[in-house]
Amino acid sequence: MSRPGDGKKFSLYTYTLLILSIAAVPVKHPLPPGVDEYTMLIVLWVALLYTFSMQSFRTTGHPVILFPAFQSFMAVNGHTLLQETAYFLATFVGMVVYTIRTGEKRGNILPYSARFTLSALLSLRLTAWILGHFRESFTADHRLLTLALVAGVLLSVFFNFAIHFLFGFKRSYPMLKNLAKYPQTVMYPSLVVLFLLPAAREALLPPPNSWTRYFLVGVSTILVIQTGLSLILARIRFSHSRTRFLEDELAEHSNVLTEPKTAIEVLRKLTDFWYGTANPEGVRITWKNVSLEHPTGFTFPEQPRLSITGSGGLSLEIWPTSGTTLDRDRADIFVHQAETVLKSIEYGEHAYKSGRRCLEAMVRSLDKSDSRQLGYSSIVAHVATKIGKRMGLAPETLEDLRMASMLHLTSSILEKAEEDWNEIFTRDPSGIRFRLPPGVVRGIRHMRENYDGTGEPDGLSGESIPIISRILSVASNFVSASDQSPEKGLLELERRAGLIYDPDIVLILGEISSEL
Question: Measured between alpha carbons, how far is 507 from 299 in angstroms, rounded to an integer?
């Protein structure tokens, strides 16, 4: 009972060994007197062909196939060599149809069908050989006959598992792991084989006047059940696959939204994502007063299009093609998710700007308290930002540098921090606090480190000193020494470059000093 392609391809040696194993179990198990051999042959041919073709798997990987019920019936009721040949052919053709139906590679169809057919034939012979020893016992007792039919299912499924393992179908899995699927595999055929009980009882208790009617009714019932199970499982797998597909899309959508830091970046990522996911002619997304389109230059017609506007104002317009897979329900989910991220970024930017304005106002107040420092922090921030831009620092690093420059006079407080990123400023005993970005805290805390490693608080040297700290050291000392003459301040820094200050930063300061 394995999926197509689960095992290795058979070698000629393996085929030969399997055929010899079948020949080694010659079962002489004649039909009961009065049972029509050809009726049984034709009906079993159709039943086996259909059940093999329509076999299916649950989403958990357990097979749902009812052919072991017919294996059990043949083992209990008896069969001829002609019927065994029909069984072999029905199994082979049914497996060919099944492998084609499930999309198996063309080169694997015949080998897989052949090995499955040979293992099924060996399983049938082994089951019939074992039950043949007890045939007289269950012929006379209806309860034992019922047990024999169920036992036939249990044996046939077990032998199928064992043969698949022994002959290389499942070499990559332990036998015990294969047998873990055994209980659920035998559940369905063990139940449906009871529909064949009246026919088996009629055949073994001559004269079998009603055998044909009971047999046809039992087989028809099993085929109807196989059809119903296959349709239900197909629908479940479709729903399961759609759910998993949607989950994967949502996860990808979430990953897209976690990277951008600004609303514009979010919109740009979203247009690319929806264009790639939906496979449309074009996509347009609008947020506030910003509208982005993909592909650029596409002429967007007014109709028809999929248009969705979220509760927060995010608008998504998709012009579909025949290959577009994004439906309204999924688009609604994506729009809601995107709006949540956009609002979060918007609130974060607002809170950050408000906090920054509050800190700058506090710094200006401190500067005004000492007439000698009036505007000092702002000047240091201006010089430091100029240096940072010339060095090509990233926008977020420049923002940290500017904030650190405005607050660098608090370095004595930060030196007492146990952990940089946990450093806080307490305004009053009520517990109202300001938390700074880690880059700002580190930049301020290490601004008195010397380039040659003689500074404090940690004795860092060279490029191990944070870049914000090195720029702050140069900018603040330049502004302090430039009270009388900028040239004098720059000369003082150049004299100590490589000892106290980063020589590259001092060089950049000299290049931009005329712009300050």
Answer: 52
Q: Do the Cβ atoms of 515 and 386 come closer than 8 Å?
A: yes
Q: Are 163 and 119 in contact (CB under 8 A)?
A: yes
Q: Where are the beta strands (DSSP E) in 289-390?
A: 290-294, 306-309, 315-319
Nearest to 282 by CA among 311, 253, 302: 302
Q: Please, what CATH class does the domain formed by 12-235 belong to?
A: mainly alpha
Q: State the Cα–Cα distance between residues 224 and 217, nearest whole angstrom.
A: 11
Q: Which CATH number fits domain 375-515: 2.60.40.3090, 1.10.3210.10, 3.40.30.10, 3.40.50.720?
A: 1.10.3210.10
Segments of the chain with pLDDT less than 50:
1-9, 170-173, 240-243, 245-247, 369-372, 417-434
Determine contact, residues 25/70, Cβ cutoff 8 Å.
Answer: no
Would you tell me how many other CB atoms lie within 10 Å of the CB of residue 112? 25
Answer for the pair 319, 303: CB distance below 8 angstroms, yes or no. no
Bridge-based pairing state of the strands 290-294 and 315-319: unpaired
> How large is the angle between the packed helices 263-278 and 211-258, nearest 10 degrees?
150
Long-range CB pairs of 95-104, under 8 A, 24+ apart, other chains included: 95/52, 97/49, 97/52, 97/53, 98/4, 98/52, 98/53, 98/54, 98/55, 99/4, 101/53, 102/4, 104/4, 104/5
Structural domain spans, the chain: 12-235, 243-345, 375-515
Question: What is the pTM for the complete model shown?
Answer: 0.47
DSSP designation for 24: T
Q: How many residues does the chain have?
A: 516
